[in-house]
Design a protein that fits this description.
The mean pLDDT is 89. This protein is of the alpha/beta class. It has one domain: Rossmann fold. The chain is globular and about 55 Å long. The longest helix has 20 residues. It contains twelve helices and eight strands. The strands form two sheets. It has a six-stranded parallel β-sheet, with helices on both faces. α6 links the parallel β5 and β6. The two termini are 24 Å apart.
C-alpha cells in the first residue's frame, strides 16, 4: 500500500510484508515484468519537486521504501500515518539473506572504481550459499545485461549509481529484462565494501545517521541543505495548508 508525500508515492507496509511480497514475486506468483524497488529520502523528494521525469520514475516503482527519518516524520505530520524507516542498505541485506537462503542469484551494477565488486566479495564472505556477479555499466550494454540476467537465472539485481541516474538506468533495463527484482541502492555498495562505516545502532535509533555521515564527510553539507528545504516545505504544508 502506498500514500503520496509531496507528490511521491511512499510504501507504508511493514518491512516483513514487503519482503514477503518480493518472495512471492520471485516464485512467480505475481506479474512477469521486472519488480522495481526505489528508496526515496528527503533529498530525492526535493529533487522530484523540480524534476518531473524523476518524479514519474519514483512513482512507477512497485515499492518505494521510506528511507530516511524525515520521511517517517513527514508521513506522520501530513498524513497521520505511522511507519518505520526502512533504510536501503538494510533492505539490501534482507534481500541478500533471502537470496542466500533460497539459492537465488544476485547481481550488482555500479560502484565507483570497483566498489561493487568489492561489496560482492564481502557479501560472499558472510553468506556461504550466495552466488552472483558484479559489473560496472560500461562493461556491458543494457540489452546484453538483460540477456545475462535471464541466462544466469539472476533473481535480484542491485543498482548503485546514485539518484536519479540509477532510477533512469533501471527504467531502461526493465524494458529488456524479464522476471527480476531491480532495486536502486544508492551508496550501499560503499557501506558493504567497508569504505563508509555505518553509524552505531544507538545513533540510527535516534534518527541521526545523516548527522553521523555529515560529520565524517563534511563535503556533503550542500546536499544536506535539501533536508532543510524539505522540513520547511512539510512545515508550510502542515501549518499553512499550502498546495
Amino acid at each position: 500500500m502506498k500514500k503520496q508525500l509531496l507528490g511521491v508515492n511512499i510504501t507504508i507496509d511493514a518491512k516483513d510484508v514487503i519482503l514477503q511480497t518480493i518472495h512471492e514475486y520471485v516464485l512467480g506468483k505475481m506479474k512477469s515484468s521486472p519488480f522495481v524497488v526505489v528508496t526515496p529520502n528527503p533529498e530525492q523528494l526535493m529533487v522530484a519537486q523540480k524534476d518531473e521525469v524523476f518524479l514519474k520514475l519514483l512513482n512507477k516503482a512497485d515499492i518505494a521504501l521510506p528511507d530516511g527519518v524525515g520521511i517517517v516524520w513527514a508521513m506522520n505530520a501530513l498524513k497521520r500515518v505511522s511507519i518505520q524507516r526502512i533504510s536501503g542498505v538494510d533492505f539490501l541485506s534482507d534481500l541478500v539473506r533471502m537470496a542466500n537462503k533460497n539459492n537465488w542469484g544476485i547481481g550488482l551494477v555500479g560502484g565507483f572504481q570497483g566498489v561493487g565488486k568489492k561489496a560482492l566479495v564481502e557479501l560472499r564472505s558472510s553468506y556461504a550459499n550466495l552466488h552472483g556477479w558484479a559489473i560496472e555499466p560500461e562493461e556491458m550494454d543494457v540489452e546484453k545485461l538483460a540477456t545475462h540476467i535471464t541466462d544466469s537465472g539472476t533473481k535480484i539485481v542491485f543498482v548503485g549509481l546514485g539518484a536519479p541516474k540509477q532510477e533512469e538506468y533501471i527504467d531502461v533495463l526493465k524494458k529488456h529484462a524479464g522476471r527480476v527484482v531491480l532495486m536502486a541502492v544508492g551508496g550501499s555498495f560503499d557501506v558493504l565494501a567497508g569504505g563508509i562505516p555505518r553509524a552505531p545502532g544507538w545513533i540510527q535509533a535516534l534518527g541521526l545517521e545523516w548527522l553521523f555521515r555529515l560529520i565524517r564527510e563534511p563535503w556533503r553539507w550542500k546536499r544536506q541543505l535539501a533536508l532543510v528545504d524539505f522540513l520547511f516545505l512539510v512545515f508550510r504544508k502542515r501549518f499553512f495548508h499550502t498546495t
